[in-house]
Amino acid sequence: MPQGTPLQVPDDGLSTRARRNLPVLAVHTGDGKGKSTAAFGMALRAWNVGLDVAVFQFVKSAKWKVGEEAVFRQLGRLHDEHGIGAAVQWHKMGSGWSWTRRSGSEDDHAAAAADGWAEISRRLAEQRHDFYVLDEFTYPLKWGWVDVEEVVDVLLARPGHQHVVITGRAAPPRLVEVADLVTEMTKVKHPMDAGRKGQQGIEW
């Protein structure tokens, strides 16, 4: 896509402006670092132009204090108090299901994930937000806690102009198929390969 020019123009009856402004469904997947980081970078752009942002984290522990959450909460206050940017909501949908020690049964976690998706589905139908980050959402899809086809149907039928970014490893092929933008992060090297643990400011 040299200089932002599409390689082909579809015969869809839309004007260039209308096609440019279509809502985007993006998927950040793969084994490399940076999937959530890239999604939050997009959310920053959305906030800056006044798009209402909502983040839903599906795997990271509710007790884990991530830097992005602290920043976005401050951006939300900046909007509320001074009218700058846009509103921000941040929701943690579980107690940590991947690398943290889990409390409760798998059925409990599956039910929490299903409840989280049901809430997102309602918000999409109501057009509550402009930009959604569904962080680590590929995992409940992979584990069968949330039905992939139902998710695809809801996302494809979402009304209005709502952007959605989904992150996580092993994105289901059906989700990849329907997405407008798919990026696969490929790990080349990682400090953990050399026995170094994650550090504040880099990993969270």
Automatic annotation (TrEMBL):
What's the protein called, per UniProt? Cob(I)yrinic acid a,c-diamide adenosyltransferase
EC code(s) of this entry: 2.5.1.17
Keywords of this protein's UniProt record, alphabetized? Transferase
Query: Gene3D superfamilies, alphabetically?
Result: P-loop containing nucleotide triphosphate hydrolases
Q: Which InterPro entries match?
A: CblAdoTrfase_CobA, P-loop_NTPase
Record flagged with keyword Transferase: yes
In terms of PANTHER family, this protein maps to: CORRINOID ADENOSYLTRANSFERASE
Q: Which domain of life is it from?
A: Bacteria
Q: Which species does this protein come from? A: Mycobacterium lentiflavum
Gene Ontology molecular function, alphabetical: corrinoid adenosyltransferase activity
Point out the gene that encodes the protein.
cobO
Q: Name one Pfam family in it.
A: CobA_CobO_BtuR
